[in-house]
Structures are given as structure tokens and as C-alpha cells.
Amino acid sequence: MTTALKISTTAPFTDTPPPLGEVVAEYRIAAGDAIAYRVTAGQYIQIIDVEGSQCSDFLAFGGDRHHDPLDATVTRTLTGLAVPQAGLPSKVFAQSMQPLVEVVQDTCGCHDSFLLACTARYYEDAGYPGHPSCSDNFNRVLAPYGIAPRPGWPALNFFYNTSVDGHGAIGFEEPLSRPGDYVLLLAHQDLLCASSACPDDIDPANGWHPTPIHVRIYAAGQSFARAIGRRAAADFPLRMTQDSAFTPSIRQLTDDLGEYNGFWVPRSFAYQGDQAEYWALRQRAALMDLSALRKFEVRGKDAFALLQYAFSRNLAKLAPGQAAYGCLLNPHGGIVDDGIVFCFGPTHYRYVGNGDTDGDWLQKVAQEQGWSVTVEAVSDRLHNLALQGPLSRDMLKTLVPEVAELGYFNFIETQIHGIPVLISRTGYTGELGYELFVHPQDGAALWEILLAAGEPLGMLPLGMKALDRARIEAGLLAQSYEFDDLTSPYQAGIGWAVAMKKPDFMGKAALEAIRRQPPRVAVGLVLEGPEVAAHGQPVFAAGERWRVGQITSATFSPVLKASIAMAQVVPDYAEPGTMVEVGLLDGLKRRVQATVGPLAAFDPTKSRVRA
Amino acid sequence: MNDFTVLQPWDMAGADGLVAARALFGESVDRLAPFQSMETTLEGLPCAVLRLCDRNFRVTYPGPFDQRVAALNLNLWVKRLDWLGAIALPAESLPAIAAQATVRAPHRLSSLPLHRAVPAQVVQIAVLIWHHPLGDRSIVELHLARPQIEAFWSLIQASNGSSVSLTTALT
Hints:
The complex is a heterodimer. Chain A is an alpha+beta fold. The mean pLDDT of chain A is about 95. In chain A, a hairpin with a 5-residue loop joins strand 6 and strand 7 (about 100-105). Chain A is built from 12 helices and 34 strands. In chain A, strands 1, 3, 6, 7, 11, 13, 14 and 15 form an 8-stranded mixed sheet that branches. Helix content of chain A is about 15%, strand content about 30%. In chain A, helix 5 (about 275-285) packs across helix 10 (about 465-475). In chain B, a hairpin with a 2-residue loop joins strand 8 and strand 9. Chain B has helices at about 15-25, 65-70, 95-100, 145-160, 165, and strands at about 10-15, 35-40, 45-55, 55-60, 75-80, 85-90, 100, 115-120, 125-135, 135-145. The longest helix of chain B has 14 residues, at about 145-160. The interface of A and B includes residues 255 and 556 of A.
């Protein structure tokens, strides 16, 4: 039974995204209304925000008598998330702690699990007695199923944009959902569900104008890839999380994958653990999937001019076959992104960075300068592995002998067992190592070849947990932690990568001023005791109440047997040996002494990567 | 019928949990990830150390482990949890137990290697399954809430057709 009109599946809807698979039922919820509907275990529920900025509160009841309702508190507790995400963990639980549904896809990523579906009381308190509410609508549509009414229903409120501020106040704003955004749920048991198109028109919760919600039910037995939809910029298309060429092989070895920069990446490998992976990296060799990097081909007669202007390093010093680490800059000297430029010749370079928008930025700079150059995104044609560790050269030269002579930040184009690869002597670990770029069609084969070649040397595949530990030890930057577009290279600790002697480049005037007196500079800290700091925690002058900086990244270093951190502090406190205090917890309850040192706590002279 | 012996492991945890573990068992203990274990000796007695979290460890040790820890004068607790018990079975019983068990991702139970543990559920009973050596044998050590040990024992015997392998508990 449903209280809403079930739409014929042949009825066309031109205002919704195309179906993802075989549809067995379809409902249009009019603005301000709600429906109840049944699904069976294995079916999928797609809840679509048709016009955007519209909340859809969701209830589900498990059990043979619908006696086991969705419980947001149970869900938050078991998942450790404010709202379940596609991937791991993704399940929505009932009061019995049994999973009801699982988030398979989500193109919005901003929902609420803390507040009730809107209630009559809310509107009464706001001066609107009698205003329709989601809770009352739910009571009406659930009554035929024997569900007792409630003044307010605790629900999972899709597209409802709520937040808790630093003072504990819960606020809400216009939803972030665009037209056609959706969540796709997999039913884990036979369920009675209810969905609303929230009637709230008295505040921004639905952008002041309630609109319809569309619900599709897909047949059981279909398979939909788990994915989170993200937009790199307002004018960029939605990008769903994807597998790299290596992910199918990696899934054989672990179920612990998380979303990183649009890809599913391993966090650690089953039965290995990040500790073993870390030590394999530091003592032998490790293999990791870094396909989430973005690659752009920069070609044309002005390719050099563009990158010489937009990138921080002096590329005049680069010969074909050489690469350089640096950053893309904006006019005020902020870091757009950090990355590596590969030189194939004066009219052909490759930029490898982190962001989908990097190519757009380069193209914009080229247009403004009137340069003849093309910037082509080739990330879908180049996936990459990193083979790192003190034995990486010994291992790789058994496959590619010329690797023995490959210098630091040099690269070659070669083959491994007939597979075309670009091998660069670069990395993100502070170890001797290489990165191997390959067409995705050859990715699985390359993974197997490298894994087999590394086994006699004790090489292990490595996940992001161990990688993060290693990169912090090595003082290597991570976007959103050490830098963003308001952070200069001098503050982030890569002032050495700015070629100030270049006649002109993006942000030069601003950086000349910043270099003389950067507001903060990057340092490494070694903390006393085993406790590990966290991003954003304050750094105080010793014995003082005032801050001199903040932590950007922190970890426990197994090789140094110490709690270490990267921090950005005012210049007066950046001298090596300076004692400062890190505020743990709330920054007040516990302070731990720390000693200022080089940004790279491990091998600060980079002797290992240059070996 | 109760034809098994309930073992009582030691647990230690606290801000200095890892500091204590390194002091007692050496640096190699810090190479364990959670749910990995190692065998060593402490004051001449055999000792199996299971890391449960960054600073939480469970230790099978026949001696006064609390006294060994107390001597370090560190910030942590050490005790035998009176609501927790352990039973040990031959490693050959692992496939039969695994067949009845479910684990939550990202944990895996298939072909559980030595020196590894995994939290699992056997029917409605929560159990930590730990595969590790005991002398020259390998065993599967099962940690459960004490009130559920009897029920669990009956469960695995029944589903195994009361075969000998599951009823030969190691003590």
C-alpha cells in the first residue's frame, strides 16, 4: 500500500537524471507532501532532489511488523560519522543495531542526522500555527501501516544542510544539492519506508521554495558502484569516485578502502597493517597506488612560457627527461596546488598535481597572456604506482636495467615486459623511490609484475595510513593541511621551490613582500611523550597564554620513536631548538613541550631520496 | 557439559600503554598493528602479546604481569578483566569456527594467518578470534564475555557434530 500515486515506469520524466538500472517502481512526491512505500531486501532506493535545494526526510522500518525503526543515534555511533557515506562505513541502522539500508551513491554529501523531521511545533513557535510539517505528513502516510503517530519523527534528513558551530549551536542553511542530486540506498532487509518533500517555506531549509522529490526503486540483483559525487568547482561536472587500474587487484588484498581525491584507495592491507607497511617502506620496499594524482599535458610553442610563469620553479634549467617539484601560484602568492613538471621538450611538458581545476587554471593563465598552448587533462589515460624504499632500485632494475642510472628527478620512457611505462625517480615518502605511469589498460598486469618482483625482497603493498606517516616524517606537504590558496610557499615550507630570480612569474610581487616577513613559517616539532597532536591544535610560546602557531599534521614516528608534527609558527619561534608548547585536547587542559626542528624530522638532508 | 578450561589473560591500557609494552617486550612490539600479536618471554616465562589498539594490549602470561608493569611506574592500568574469559582450541578448529562466524569490514577471517586476531560474531555471540602459536603448536584462542562461554561452547560443538577437534580444549 502507498498513499502516493505510483507512477507508471513508462511515464517519462524529463526533469530527473536517467535511471541507473532496471526500475521497478517510481514515485513523484509533490512539494510539501510525503509518501510511504515498501521495498524488499536487495532493492535500491534512489531519492532525487529534482530541482535542487530541497530536503527529503527519510524513515525506514525493519522487522516483520515494522517494529524496528531507523535510529540516527545508533547509526552515528556505529559508523563514527555524522551521516553515513558511500564506501566504508555506509550503513544506516535500526534501533536493534541491524542495518536497514546502505548508502551506495551520494552526489550531494551534505545531509542531517541530528534533527527531527520538521514538526508542527517548529512552525507554531515561528508564528505559523497549522503549517504542514514532515512529521505530520509521515503520521498520515504511515497510519495505514499501523505505525503510531509521533509529534516529531527522528529521521535521516537528506539534503538538509545543518551544522554545529564552535559554541554548540545547531544551524541550518540552504541545501547544497543541485538539480538532479541524489542518494542511492541499498535495502538490507524488507522495509517500510517513508520519504518527504519537506514543506518548510519559512526559512532557507528548502531555499524558501519547496519543490518535488522523486523516488525510484531499482530491482534487486543489480550492481551499482559505490561512489561519492564531488564537484571540483562550481562550474565543474559532478565526478563520481572511481577505481584506478590497480584497484581491482588491491581489492583482493583488502576491504579497507576509502575515498581520496575521487578514487577508492587502500587505507591498509588485510593482515598486514600499516605498521608492517611502514617498515617495509623504510627498510625494504613498498608499492602504492597514487593514481589520484591529476595529470595534464601542456603542449604548444608557448608551453615553456606558460609553465615558467605559472609554476614556481625555473624550468629553463630543465632538460628533456628531467622533472621539478614546485607549485602553481595565484596572484597574491598563494599556492594553487603543488606538483611536478615533467619536461619532454620545450613545447611539451606534463604537470602532475592534485586538482582537477589545475588544467583549467593553466588554460586561463595562457589565455590571459595570449599564449599558444593546449592544456589537456590525461588523468584517465595515466594511472600511476609508486615503488619506494631503500631496495626499490635493486628491485626495479631487475625489470628495467637502465633504472640503475636514473638520477633524482629524472625520468625515462621504457617498457616492462612489453608494457609502456614512464618511470620517474620521484616520490612522496622520503625514501629512494620511483613512480611508474601506465595506461590503465596495462595497470593490473603492471601491478602483478611489480608485486611478484618485489616479493623476494619483502616488498609490501602500502596504504594511505602508512603513507601519511611517512610523508609527515619526511616533511612533505598535503593539500588542505599544509597549504591552500591563502598559504604562500614561504609559509608552507617550500620557499626553496620559488625561483625569485625569474624575471616575472605569477604572484612574484606579492611573494617578494611575503619572503621578507612571512606571517608564519613551517617547522617540524618533536613532542615530549607519546601523545600525538592533531591538525589545527595550537602551538604556544613556552609558559605563555598566547599562541605562536598551529599544528598542520602530526603522527608518531616509529623510526624516530617520537611524537612529531609539522607546524606553522611565527618567525620568531622558528629557530631550531626553540622550546614551545603544543595544546592538546582543547588546547588548555594539557600542554606538551615540543622542540622546534627541521620540517623533515626524518632524514632532513634528503640523503635517502638522493642515494 | 563443561570440559574446557577458561583462561584469564591480562589487559593493559593507558596513555603510556605503548611505552610500557616497549619497555617489557622490546621495540618489535611497536611493529604490530592492531589485532596483530607476537610471542616473547618475560622474566623467563612465555608470553603472547596481542595489540588491540595504539596503546591497548592483551597478554597471555602465566606470571604476575601486574607486578612487572607496576615496576615501570607508568601511566596505565593493568588487570585481569573479570568479565572476560578465554578458551584455547587447536588451530585445526579454526575453519569450523570461521564457517560460523561473521566479521565486519574491513576485517577478514578467511585464512586468518598466525599472529592475527579478528573481532567476530558467532550467531549472536561476540568473540575475539586469535590465531597464534603456543609453544610448538598453533592454537586459536577465543576471547568472550564469561557468561557466554558455555553457550558458545555448546554452539560450536553442536554445529561441528560434536567432533573431537573442537572439544579438545588446550589448557
